[in-house]
Structures are given as structure tokens and as C-alpha cells.
Write the C-alpha cells for this entry.
Amino acid sequence: MAAPARIRTEALLESPLADFAAAVREGLTKLGQKELPSRYLYDEVGSALFEVICLLPEYGLCRAGERLLERHAEEIADLLPLPVAVAELGSGTGTKTRWILEALARRQPVNYFPIDISRSALWRCSQELGRIDSVSIVGFEREYLDGLVSVAARRVDGEHLLVLFLGSTIGNFDRPAGEAFLRQVRGILHPGDALLLATDLEKPVPDLLLAYDDPAGVTAAFNRNLLARINRALDADFDLAKFVHAVRYDDVERRIEMHLRAVCDQSVHVRAASLKVTLQAGETIWTESSHKYRCDEVLGMGERTGYRCAAQWTDAEWPFAQSLFFAE
Ligand code: AVI
């Protein structure tokens, strides 16, 4: 049996709490639409709720991504130049990565570098994947691009890099920001390095609304937990009973938006951000966007940002794509 994985937790953000307070202050004092950044949905509770969301019958996204990896991992591995090290952006607990690592480990010893801002996610990732023979893991508790720069600096001569960006996390960026991000990743890669990019595809709006507003209320709890997190971490007094989860589809932007709607006029004190906010009945705080794509649009995004697409696989049950790009 392989030794338990070693998780290195290199330099953290300078002051995560100060960054959080600043982001909350900025988002809640915006003129017009109030916002909170979706990255803060994922504290311990939020991450656990997201894992439950992935089990919901109405939310097929995670299962579709995993099905594609399970079905096509060998083909993906055959397309990669060897030797290759694997970096994963936002690895979470790493469940969906197993298929790729196992396929690669049948061809070569694999160095796997999960990058995630959550130490507990990295720890669970090491538990989940650290026992695959011929796979060694070093985790980076860092932001995506910082982590990727560190991983790239560790590569040995002649070794390629495969970057995994799974789960359609790119959909949580605005489209221009998503492209800018792909370009930044490209700037860290060498020609011939690979990027496996997952994207959730367009599907009927009623299916999307149900996926993001499930009858069991798990997504609502996931959304409201952001306010609970602000209460806990920033000494705020949001009354969660005074907010409802609201989901809408913007068919121009082709995205699902999650909001928290105030059910009555109220004011909230966020002490650690030195902030008093007032909300009117019906006003919303926008907490997440989840963009949906077309297959050819994904190819275009890759081409405009310095990649060539080698293959694209789609899931028939839940429209979803995995696209394998090579840096040009
Ligand atoms: C992580 N991300 C791709 C999910 C999504 O579908 O946009 C987050 C999520 N939000 C609500 N449900 C799931």
C-alpha cells in the first residue's frame, strides 16, 4: 500500500479574514445591485453542502463530469505527452480526479499537485487519492494562479504539465473574466502542456432552475450559509430567516444567478468590516453566477487564449463537456 500522502501547505493569503471583510464591505456597499463573491460560499459548512448538492437528482453536473472522466480517462491519457505531472485547480476533495490519475499511473509514476484554498479539502483529497499506487501528492493551499506558478516551478526537465480545471468552475466567472483566466493559465504553461477544461452546457431553463433551487432546499441552505459565515467570521447580525434563496436565468448572459432576497426592510451590522447596511424588502444580494456554454463556444475560448483543442467529449444525459486543450 502506498504511504499516506504528504500535504504541504505553503504560504497562505496574507490575511484571509481582512480580505473577506474587505470583499464583504465592497460588495454590500455597491451602488445598485449588492453582491457577495461566490468564492466565499465554500467554508467548511458550504463545502459540505456543495457535496450534498452533487448528490441531488436535480443537479446532474458533478455526475456528468465524473461519467465523462470515467469513460474517457484512458483516451485522455493516450493523448498526453509523457512524462506529465498533474496540477488541479480547485481540487476540492479530489473524487472526480481518480480516473485520470489511475489511467496515468498505469503509464508512469504521477506527481499530482492539488491546489485549493481549503486546507481540509486538501487533506480529504490526500485521503481519497493518496493511496493510488504510483501517485504522489503535494497539495498547495493557495489561490489557483499562485499555486500553479509554484507547481510549474517544480517541474523537472522534459516534464509536461496537465492542468485540470474540472467541475465547470469556470462558469462561476463572468465570460470575459473566464477568458482572462484561461489566458493567465496559458502564460504559466509551456507549449505542449495540456489543460482539461470542464464546462456545463446550455440545457432547458426549467431543468436549470430546478438544479439550482432543489425541492429539498439544499442549494438554499448553501446560499444562506454565506450569511451565516459572515455572522460567524465577521461578527455580523444577519437574520437568516429574513432572506430567501432566489434563482433566475438570464437568457442574454446565458447564466443562472443565485440571489438572497430580503423579505422585509432591515439593517445589518457587520462589525469586523465596520459596516452598517440597510436592505429594503425585495432587494437582493447577488451571490453567484453559473454560466452555461455551447460546445463551439468553448473551442473558441480556448483558441482565443492560446490553446488548440485536441478532443472534446460530451455527456448525453446531462449536457456537459470535457475539452482537452494543448498550449500552443
Ligand atoms: C462549483 N460550481 C460549478 C457550481 C455551479 O453549478 O455553478 C456551484 C453551485 N452553485 C449552486 N449549485 C452549485
